[in-house]
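Weekly puzzle thread! Below is a chain. First person to post its structure in C-alpha coordinate form gets bragging rights.
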Amino acid sequence: MVLAVHASAVVDNFAPIARPATDAYRADVAAAPERGGDAAAVWLTVASLVEHAALVPEGEAADVLGTAIGLALEQLGEEAFVRLGAAEWGEADRVPSDAIVLLTDAMQSADLLNLAASTLDSLLGADRALGPVQRGRILAKRARVAWKLGMLEEADADIAASSTSDGANRAPSSKRARRSASWRSRSFAATIRMCAATRGAPCVWRSRAVCVR
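Winning reply:
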Protein backbone atom coordinates (compact mmCIF):
# COMPACT_ATOMS: atom_id res chain seq x y z
CA MET A 1 0.00 0.00 0.00
CA VAL A 2 1.39 3.41 -1.01
CA LEU A 3 0.61 6.10 1.54
CA ALA A 4 0.57 9.86 1.03
CA VAL A 5 2.86 12.02 3.16
CA HIS A 6 0.93 12.61 6.35
CA ALA A 7 1.01 15.69 8.59
CA SER A 8 2.31 13.69 11.53
CA ALA A 9 5.45 12.67 9.64
CA VAL A 10 6.52 16.32 9.53
CA VAL A 11 6.76 16.70 13.30
CA ASP A 12 7.43 13.20 14.59
CA ASN A 13 9.67 10.23 13.94
CA PHE A 14 7.23 7.39 13.38
CA ALA A 15 5.85 5.93 10.15
CA PRO A 16 2.28 7.06 9.48
CA ILE A 17 -0.17 4.32 8.56
CA ALA A 18 -2.83 6.52 6.95
CA ARG A 19 -3.44 9.09 4.27
CA PRO A 20 -4.56 12.70 4.99
CA ALA A 21 -7.99 13.18 6.55
CA THR A 22 -9.97 14.16 3.45
CA ASP A 23 -8.45 11.40 1.33
CA ALA A 24 -9.01 8.92 4.15
CA TYR A 25 -12.68 9.84 4.41
CA ARG A 26 -13.16 9.54 0.65
CA ALA A 27 -11.59 6.09 0.72
CA ASP A 28 -13.93 5.02 3.52
CA VAL A 29 -17.15 6.22 1.88
CA ALA A 30 -16.30 5.28 -1.70
CA ALA A 31 -18.14 1.97 -1.43
CA ALA A 32 -20.70 3.04 1.20
CA PRO A 33 -21.50 6.80 1.19
CA GLU A 34 -23.88 6.40 4.13
CA ARG A 35 -21.13 5.33 6.54
CA GLY A 36 -21.09 7.38 9.72
CA GLY A 37 -24.35 9.18 9.00
CA ASP A 38 -24.67 12.77 10.19
CA ALA A 39 -21.87 12.32 12.73
CA ALA A 40 -19.34 11.70 9.96
CA ALA A 41 -19.21 15.41 9.10
CA VAL A 42 -18.18 16.22 12.66
CA TRP A 43 -15.63 13.40 12.71
CA LEU A 44 -14.07 14.68 9.49
CA THR A 45 -13.91 18.20 10.94
CA VAL A 46 -12.15 16.89 14.05
CA ALA A 47 -9.71 14.85 11.96
CA SER A 48 -8.95 17.84 9.73
CA LEU A 49 -8.35 20.14 12.71
CA VAL A 50 -6.00 17.63 14.33
CA GLU A 51 -4.16 17.25 11.04
CA HIS A 52 -3.79 21.04 10.78
CA ALA A 53 -2.55 21.25 14.37
CA ALA A 54 0.26 18.85 13.49
CA LEU A 55 1.51 21.19 10.79
CA VAL A 56 1.51 24.58 12.50
CA PRO A 57 3.77 26.07 15.21
CA GLU A 58 3.18 24.95 18.78
CA GLY A 59 1.34 28.07 19.95
CA GLU A 60 -1.16 27.96 17.09
CA ALA A 61 -1.40 24.19 17.37
CA ALA A 62 -2.69 24.45 20.94
CA ASP A 63 -5.61 26.63 19.83
CA VAL A 64 -6.50 24.41 16.88
CA LEU A 65 -6.21 21.24 18.96
CA GLY A 66 -8.35 22.82 21.68
CA THR A 67 -11.12 23.38 19.14
CA ALA A 68 -10.88 19.77 17.98
CA ILE A 69 -11.02 18.53 21.58
CA GLY A 70 -14.12 20.61 22.26
CA LEU A 71 -15.88 19.19 19.21
CA ALA A 72 -14.90 15.65 20.14
CA LEU A 73 -16.16 16.05 23.69
CA GLU A 74 -19.42 17.55 22.45
CA GLN A 75 -19.88 14.66 20.04
CA LEU A 76 -19.12 12.02 22.67
CA GLY A 77 -21.07 13.60 25.50
CA GLU A 78 -19.72 14.00 29.02
CA GLU A 79 -21.23 10.76 30.33
CA ALA A 80 -19.67 8.70 27.55
CA PHE A 81 -16.34 10.48 27.91
CA VAL A 82 -16.22 9.59 31.60
CA ARG A 83 -17.52 6.04 31.20
CA LEU A 84 -15.47 5.05 28.18
CA GLY A 85 -12.30 6.68 29.47
CA ALA A 86 -12.60 4.99 32.85
CA ALA A 87 -13.22 1.61 31.23
CA GLU A 88 -10.27 2.05 28.88
CA TRP A 89 -7.63 3.62 31.10
CA GLY A 90 -8.98 4.42 34.57
CA GLU A 91 -7.94 7.76 36.04
CA ALA A 92 -4.20 7.55 35.53
CA ASP A 93 -2.43 9.94 33.18
CA ARG A 94 -5.53 11.38 31.51
CA VAL A 95 -5.19 14.28 29.07
CA PRO A 96 -7.76 16.41 27.19
CA SER A 97 -6.95 14.80 23.83
CA ASP A 98 -8.31 11.53 25.24
CA ALA A 99 -11.63 12.80 23.85
CA ILE A 100 -10.23 12.57 20.33
CA VAL A 101 -8.76 9.12 20.95
CA LEU A 102 -12.13 7.88 22.19
CA LEU A 103 -13.90 9.45 19.21
CA THR A 104 -11.82 7.29 16.88
CA ASP A 105 -13.56 4.26 18.40
CA ALA A 106 -16.84 5.60 17.03
CA MET A 107 -15.19 6.05 13.63
CA GLN A 108 -14.05 2.42 13.75
CA SER A 109 -17.53 1.24 14.69
CA ALA A 110 -18.89 3.05 11.64
CA ASP A 111 -16.23 1.37 9.42
CA LEU A 112 -14.46 4.68 8.82
CA LEU A 113 -11.16 2.95 9.46
CA ASN A 114 -9.00 5.17 7.28
CA LEU A 115 -10.38 8.28 8.96
CA ALA A 116 -9.69 6.80 12.40
CA ALA A 117 -6.13 5.95 11.37
CA SER A 118 -5.58 9.43 9.96
CA THR A 119 -6.84 11.05 13.16
CA LEU A 120 -4.61 8.93 15.39
CA ASP A 121 -1.58 9.54 13.18
CA SER A 122 -2.14 13.30 13.28
CA LEU A 123 -2.74 13.36 17.02
CA LEU A 124 0.69 11.89 17.71
CA GLY A 125 2.18 14.95 16.04
CA ALA A 126 -0.44 17.54 17.01
CA ASP A 127 -0.44 17.16 20.80
CA ARG A 128 3.05 18.18 21.85
CA ALA A 129 2.21 17.55 25.51
CA LEU A 130 1.80 13.78 25.10
CA GLY A 131 3.97 11.67 27.37
CA PRO A 132 5.06 8.05 26.90
CA VAL A 133 1.86 6.68 28.46
CA GLN A 134 -0.48 8.69 26.24
CA ARG A 135 1.57 7.91 23.15
CA GLY A 136 1.45 4.23 24.03
CA ARG A 137 -2.33 4.36 24.24
CA ILE A 138 -2.60 6.02 20.83
CA LEU A 139 -0.20 3.50 19.31
CA ALA A 140 -2.33 0.69 20.72
CA LYS A 141 -5.38 2.20 19.00
CA ARG A 142 -3.38 2.58 15.79
CA ALA A 143 -2.43 -1.10 15.98
CA ARG A 144 -6.08 -2.07 16.22
CA VAL A 145 -7.00 0.03 13.19
CA ALA A 146 -4.00 -1.19 11.19
CA TRP A 147 -5.01 -4.79 11.90
CA LYS A 148 -8.56 -4.11 10.66
CA LEU A 149 -7.09 -2.54 7.51
CA GLY A 150 -5.00 -5.64 6.91
CA MET A 151 -1.73 -3.85 7.69
CA LEU A 152 -0.39 -6.61 9.90
CA GLU A 153 3.27 -5.57 9.97
CA GLU A 154 2.31 -2.03 10.98
CA ALA A 155 -0.01 -3.40 13.66
CA ASP A 156 2.77 -5.55 15.11
CA ALA A 157 5.14 -2.57 15.17
CA ASP A 158 2.60 -0.39 16.99
CA ILE A 159 1.85 -3.11 19.52
CA ALA A 160 5.55 -3.47 20.27
CA ALA A 161 5.95 0.30 20.65
CA SER A 162 2.88 0.71 22.84
CA SER A 163 3.94 -2.11 25.20
CA THR A 164 7.07 -0.17 26.17
CA SER A 165 4.99 2.63 27.73
CA ASP A 166 4.91 1.86 31.46
CA GLY A 167 1.40 1.89 32.88
CA ALA A 168 -0.30 2.59 29.56
CA ASN A 169 -3.24 0.39 30.49
CA ARG A 170 -3.39 1.00 34.22
CA ALA A 171 -6.81 1.09 35.89
CA PRO A 172 -7.97 1.65 39.46
CA SER A 173 -7.63 -1.61 41.37
CA SER A 174 -10.29 -1.13 44.04
CA LYS A 175 -13.96 -0.20 44.06
CA ARG A 176 -13.23 2.90 46.11
CA ALA A 177 -10.50 3.93 43.67
CA ARG A 178 -12.87 3.47 40.72
CA ARG A 179 -15.49 5.71 42.39
CA SER A 180 -12.83 8.34 43.04
CA ALA A 181 -11.63 8.05 39.46
CA SER A 182 -15.17 8.53 38.15
CA TRP A 183 -15.63 11.70 40.23
CA ARG A 184 -12.32 13.14 39.06
CA SER A 185 -13.07 12.24 35.45
CA ARG A 186 -16.36 14.13 35.61
CA SER A 187 -14.57 17.15 36.99
CA PHE A 188 -11.97 16.75 34.27
CA ALA A 189 -14.65 16.65 31.56
CA ALA A 190 -16.34 19.75 32.96
CA THR A 191 -13.04 21.64 32.86
CA ILE A 192 -12.45 20.67 29.24
CA ARG A 193 -15.98 21.79 28.33
CA MET A 194 -15.45 25.13 30.07
CA CYS A 195 -12.14 25.68 28.29
CA ALA A 196 -13.68 24.90 24.91
CA ALA A 197 -16.60 27.24 25.59
CA THR A 198 -14.23 30.09 26.41
CA ARG A 199 -12.07 29.31 23.34
CA GLY A 200 -9.13 28.25 25.45
CA ALA A 201 -7.02 25.18 24.75
CA PRO A 202 -7.26 22.80 27.69
CA CYS A 203 -4.05 21.44 29.11
CA VAL A 204 -3.98 18.93 31.96
CA TRP A 205 -1.02 17.95 34.09
CA ARG A 206 -1.93 14.99 36.29
CA SER A 207 -5.19 15.98 38.04
CA ARG A 208 -4.95 19.75 37.61
CA ALA A 209 -6.46 21.43 34.55
CA VAL A 210 -5.83 24.95 33.29
CA CYS A 211 -6.81 26.84 30.16
CA VAL A 212 -3.94 27.98 27.98
CA ARG A 213 -4.79 31.00 25.89
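Puzzle host: Confirmed. Bonus trivia for everyone else. Residues 1-5, 8-13, 166-213 have pLDDT under 50 and may be disordered.
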